[in-house]
UniProtKB/TrEMBL annotation:
Lineage summary: Bacteria, Pseudomonadati, Bacteroidota, Flavobacteriia, Flavobacteriales
Protein name per UniProt: Lysylphosphatidylglycerol synthase-like protein
Natural source organism: Lacinutrix venerupis
Location of this chain's protein in the cell: Cell membrane
Keyword Transmembrane helix: yes
Any one Gene Ontology cellular component term annotated for this protein: plasma membrane
Transmembrane segments: 12-30, 50-72, 129-155, 167-186, 207-225, 231-256, 263-281, 287-313
Signal peptide annotation: none
Length: 324
């Protein structure tokens, strides 16, 4: 009786946790859309309706780009996981969208790591964390490469004032933190089975070259997809920039917004502030930029997280660990 009650209690709390994740995600989405100090949701909806932005043709193309964006991300995750375990596309979809929902209100999507790991048996979880880190790192590298080029061209084209002294201080601070972190990890008393530098190097070297290249290419295509989607939204709002001119600002925006620590649900605010500042140099008004940012957020994060909530609610910890 005691064991049965204990099991039921655990099940009850597990269901409660799943409900809390979904309710919390929906609350943050609602709060960000309705109580947005920068963009009134009623004005936003009225503007879209009155300007015929969301015609059937435009909606189909925008939804296709969002679908393609997440299709590439799911393929990337399926490819990475194949290093330790073969999973179907549907399993990769469940894990990716479920993790998105669970990570909405965590700083810098940190919750995604634990959410994906919990889909696997205990012996796989450390490797899953590292594979997820690998995928995110490669995506970040692409953002930095194109963002660096874009920001360089942006600085040549527009009279932006950069405080070189502050940039240098920030770079030195990051270098010091990175150096101390590496030094700390190499000390015997801080070493652990998981954070051993030698074991981490060994793990990353064991990842097949084919998977690394595949991950890079999928991340690259995904970057092109969501960058083009943003440009397409700007064109729908009547922004007269050429593709090249717009991409200079878009790549710079993604670079700057990616290096600013934030709670992921407020990513729309971070990107909005950065985008408004950068596009102001091209004479684009704030309302137009915020509308594009908000639509990007709805299409690529709100809609997928709604589907992801289904997988969160139907997640069975015991069944998953037996089959994983």
């Amino acid at each position: 009786m005691h064991n049965g009650l204990s099991y039921k209690t655990k099940q009850f709390f597990f269901v409660l946790i799943k409900l809390s994740i979904v309710v919390g995600a929906f609350y943050f989405i609602y709060n960000k859309l309705v109580n947005n100090n920068k963009l009134d949701f009623y004005e936003f909806a009225t503007y879209l309706n009155s300007n015929n932005v969301l015609t059937a043709k435009n909606v189909i193309l925008l939804m296709f780009l969002s679908f393609l964006n997440w299709y590439l991300e799911i393929l990337k995750w399926q490819s990475l996981v194949s290093f330790i375990k073969k999973i179907s596309f549907f399993e990769a979809l469940k894990q990716s969208l479920g993790a998105l929902t669970a990570s909405l209100f965590t700083p810098n999507r940190i919750g995604e790591y634990g959410a994906k790991a919990i889909y696997f048996a205990k012996q796989y979880r450390k490797k899953i964390l590292l594979l997820n880190l690998t995928g995110n790192t490669i995506q970040m590298v692409i953002t930095v490469i194109f963002g660096g080029i874009g920001f360089y061209l942006f600085s040549l084209r527009y009279p932006i004032e950069i405080d070189s002294y502050r940039v240098l201080r920030f770079a030195i601070l990051l270098l010091v933190i990175f150096s101390l972190s590496i030094f700390g990890l190499q000390q015997k008393k801080y070493k652990s089975n998981f954070f051993s530098i030698s074991k981490l190097k060994h793990f990353f070297r064991k990842i097949p070259f084919r998977i690394s290249v595949n991950t890079f290419l999928l991340s690259l295509f995904r970057y092109f997809v969501f960058s083009y989607q943003f440009y397409f939204l700007l064109s729908l709002f009547g922004v007269g920039l050429s593709y090249f001119e717009a991409m200079i600002i878009i790549t710079s925006m993604y670079l700057l917004s990616s290096i600013i620590p934030s709670v992921f649900i407020f990513d729309v605010v971070i990107k909005g502030s950065v985008a408004v500042y950068l596009f102001s140099f091209a004479g684009i008004d704030e309302f137009t930029v915020l509308c594009a940012i908000t639509l990007m957020w709805i299409l690529n994060f709100v809609f997928p997280s709604i589907f992801g909530s289904y997988f969160v609610l139907n997640f069975n910890f015991n069944k998953q660990n037996k089959s994983a």
